[in-house]
Amino acid sequence: MANSYGPSIGLESAKQAAAAAQAEARRNGWTMVVAVVDISGELVYFEKSDDAQNGSVKVAVAKARSAALFKRPTKAFQDALAAGGDGLRILSLEGAVPVEGGMPLVVNDRIVGAIGVSGGTSQEDGVCAKAGVGALPATE
């Protein structure tokens, strides 16, 4: 069972998660776009690296929104789609982004929002999103 929703992420925590994702990107020489949304999928914080591709702006927000609204990493949709068969149902879910890089942000075992990262390969986006998730304390 997925985590329940908690209170929405605040600005300072959103900045903290985005900073960690961007730091991971810089360590690897990647230019990324990072979006952090609240539990309703509404934008709380956004950051775009210099020279990040413009197309990643909407993708990062969509990944974050998908992770928040469906309470799961977008990689779960990517994997289901890649498996074919029943996984193709993912294509009919409005707002489900089947590309790695979106992850719920969890504090006190409750989803407080989500982070979406775009700009590199799906795997690179996922690495940066995971760094953002890891920047928040498990409990407050």
Provide a descriptive summary of the structure in words:
Helices cover 40% and strands 20% of the residues. With 140 residues, the chain is of the alpha+beta class. The protein has one domain (4-134): Haem-degrading domain (Beta-Lactamase, 2-Layer Sandwich). Strands 1, 2, 3, 4 and 5 form a 5-stranded mixed beta sheet that branches. A hairpin with a 2-residue loop joins strand 4 (102-107) and strand 5. Helix 1 (11-28) packs across helix 4 (122-134). The longest helix has 18 residues, at 11-28. It is globular, with a radius of gyration of 14 Å.
How would you summarize what this structure contains?
The protein has helices at residues 11-28, 56-70, 74-83, 122-134, and strands at 4-5, 33-37, 43-48, 102-107, 110-118.
